[in-house]
Every structure is written in C-alpha cells, then in structure tokens.
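User: Can you recover a sequence for this backbone? Please restate the input before giving your answer.

Assistant: Of course. Working from this structure:
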C-alpha cells in the first residue's frame, strides 16, 4: 500500500542531514555541556553552533536564544514569566481566540491566579483586526501574544503592524512562530517583537526541543529552576543532540526557505484544484488568498460527513491527515479555531486539514484525491442526512 503523509503541521520527519549531525552527540560527544573536560567542551561547542544557527534563522543575537524542551514550554514560560515580572505594572494580557492550546490553556491557568485575559475575535478567515487590538489595550496591559501563523487554517497575521500597536502603548509583544519559521520569513528586528516561541519538530528537526527568543534587555524569571544552564534562565542538562539537530534544521530552513515555500504552495494549490474538480459540496476554511496562509496548509469542510470518519478511512488507505489540529484528536469537540471563524458546527465537523511538505510529490496527491473521492462517496451514501434533507 502506498503511504502518503499529509500532516506536516502536526510534525515532520527528521531530515537525514539533521540526524547525521545529531548522532555524534549521543556517542563520542556525549559529555555534559557544563563539564570542563574535552567531551563536555565538545558538547558545549555543539550548543554554541546551534544557538548561532537558530539566531540566524530569525535575525536575532545568540544571547537572545534560550533552548527549551518544546514550543509549548516556550509559550508557557513567556506568559507566566511576564505575568510575574510585570505584576507591579499590571495584570492584563491580550491574546486571540485562535491560539494554540499551549497559549490558551496557560492563559486559563493565569486567570485562576488573578491575571485578566482578553481573547480577541478574528474575522471569518482568521485575521485579527489591528483596531480591535488597539481598543483592547489598557494601562494595565503587560503583554500581547498573537500567533504568527495559525496551525489549523494557516492564517498569517500582520504581526509587524500588530506589534507596532503594542509598542506604541509600551506593551510587550510575543508571537508563537512555531508554524511560521521555515515557512514564511521571520525577522525579529523587522517585526519589532519582544519574544517568539519556536519548535524543532515542525521544521524537520527532532521532537522535544524548542526555543524562546527574548529580546536583549528584557528580563523575565527562570521557568525551570535548578542549575545554571542557559544563562541561569532554564535549568536542566541540555538536550545536546536535540539542540544540535534543531540548529541544523534551522540552517536548512533558512537556506531552503524560498524553495520549500514555493514547493509547498504549488502542491497545496494543486491539491485544492484536484479536490474541487473531483468532489462537490465542499468549503475552504481560512484565507481564500493563498498568499496570506501557510504555504502547505489546506483546510476543507466536506458537507454531510464527519471529519473523523474521513480521517479513519484515509488512514486505512495509508494516508495521514488531521481533523482540526492534532491536539484535538482525542476530543470530539469542534475546533475552537473553526468556531472562532464562525464556521457552522456541521461544517466544522466535516473539516479535514491537509498539510504538504518537502517530501510530498504530485503522484502522492493524485493517489490522495483518488482515494478521497471514493471515501467521500461511500460516507455520503451511508450518511443519515444523505439526500440533504435536514442538513443545513
Ligand atoms: C506544535 C505547536 C506548538 C507546540 O510545539 P511543541 O514543540 O509540540 O510543544 C505550539 N504552537 C503552535 C502554533 C504549534 O503548531
């Protein structure tokens, strides 16, 4: 059976060059990076190189990069850290209704501890209105956190414009760029942001390693307490092999950005064209203007059927896709992102996210659409609302 992976926004395979760069750090260069003898120093050199590679990807300085255990940790750290460090200034954070759960659930936690959170609405393509942000800022606002690229529908926010509004009011700005790095240019100086979160496993690096960019001059408390690693800001013996892999993945992402984005965009458009040609009663979720969405993202609602049923039948044919986001695969609630875009529940239930990447080919897409057409036909024949009566 053919296997086609179309879930690159959930995670990516680790590229061979990345694996090869990592291997010595499990074996010869296994020393503790804090140790002062040769194997430790070799490991420390690996970390230094990776820090430069990650900094270069986002046009930051090495001292502004702090490695974490994942993108989620970076998101938790910045929200909790700013809430703590700036509590004498205020207790208000502004975010959006379409953030990743790493942001939303941290905000809910902070709300239990006296922080007030405003969740901005988005329009029906997922865009935040700069005027809404401006109106939400008060003299108690300490942080704005708005993701750069949405993981479910791919919306690319106008971060530069939004960050300028926060800055004009003297408010710190964080953006979760986990889906952005490697897919769209991310330049922290040009964007004018104070913090960004990143993760390696969405850019062909290993799982279990991420980073927080913290602009030089801003101070937030340590999140994991213990040893003096990461300039005393993030304790715990460094995941040297993982960090080295992240560095290599960042270098490949930087050098290959234009080519990767063009390849993804071309295949994503091709997939959309083929689906439209073969299957009726469908709706695109997220921005209609493909230049304003993640280059590999396609999110489609299939009327009269459940996304979960589509996912399972595609899986039985070797095809991996997701409904909404991977984080909601264990709950049957409709996606908070599609809800925020005001996608009606019955259409949200039939939504499937396809994300293409560097190893996707045109032949893969032909196979996917051929199977998808059969799967949708079968499910629609079985559907209790077949004939469309009662389905609105
Ligand atoms: C995947 C993802 C995260 C979480 O990153 P992990 O490294 O898996 O913890 C955070 N934000 C967004 C937008 C993501 O897509």
């Amino acid at each position: 059976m053919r296997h086609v992976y179309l879930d690159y926004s959930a995670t990516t395979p680790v590229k061979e060059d990345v694996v090869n760069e990592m291997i010595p750090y499990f074996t010869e260069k296994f020393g503790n990076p804090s140790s002062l003898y040769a194997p430790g120093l070799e490991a420390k050199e690996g970390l230094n190189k990776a820090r430069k590679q990650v900094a270069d990807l986002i046009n930051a300085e090495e001292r502004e990069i702090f490695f974490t255990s994942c993108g989620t940790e970076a998101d938790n750290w910045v929200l909790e850290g700013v809430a703590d460090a700036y509590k004498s200034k205020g207790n208000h954070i502004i975010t959006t209704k379409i953030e990743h759960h790493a942001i939303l659930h941290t905000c809910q936690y902070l709300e239990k501890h006296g922080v007030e959170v405003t969740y901005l609405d988005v329009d029906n393509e997922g865009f935040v209105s700069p005027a809404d942000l401006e109106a939400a800022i008060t003299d108690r606002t300490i942080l704005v956190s708005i993701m750069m690229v949405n993981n479910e529908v791919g919306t690319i926010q106008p971060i530069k414009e939004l960050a300028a509004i926060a800055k004009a009011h003297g408010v710190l700005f964080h953006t979760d760029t986990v889906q952005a790095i490697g897919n769209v240019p991310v330049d922290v100086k040009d964007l004018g942001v104070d913090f960004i979160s990143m993760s390696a496993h969405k850019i062909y690096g290993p799982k279990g390693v991420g980073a927080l960019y913290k602009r030089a001059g801003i101070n937030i408390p340590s999140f994991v307490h213990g040893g003096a690693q990461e300039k005393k800001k993030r304790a715990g013996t460094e995941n040297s092999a993982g960090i080295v892999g992240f560095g290599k993945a960042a270098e490949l992402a930087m050098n290959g950005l234009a080519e990767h984005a063009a390849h993804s965009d071309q295949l994503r458009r091709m997939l959309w064209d083929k689906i439209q040609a073969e299957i009726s009663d469908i709706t695109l979720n997220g921005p209609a203007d493909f230049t304003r969405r993640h280059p590999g993202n396609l999110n489609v609602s299939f009327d009269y059927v459940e996304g979960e049923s589509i996912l399972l039948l595609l899986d039985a044919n070797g095809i991996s896709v997701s409904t909404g986001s991977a984080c909601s695969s264990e709950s049957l609630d409709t996606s908070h992102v599609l809800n925020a875009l005001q996608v009606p529940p019955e259409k949200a239930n039939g939504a499937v996210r396809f994300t293409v990447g560097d190893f996707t080919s045109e032949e893969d897409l032909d196979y996917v659409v051929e199977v998808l057409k059969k799967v949708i036909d079968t499910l629609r024949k079985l559907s209790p609302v077949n004939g469309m009566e009662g389905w609105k």
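That completes the design. The chain has two domains: 4-12+257-382, 16-255.
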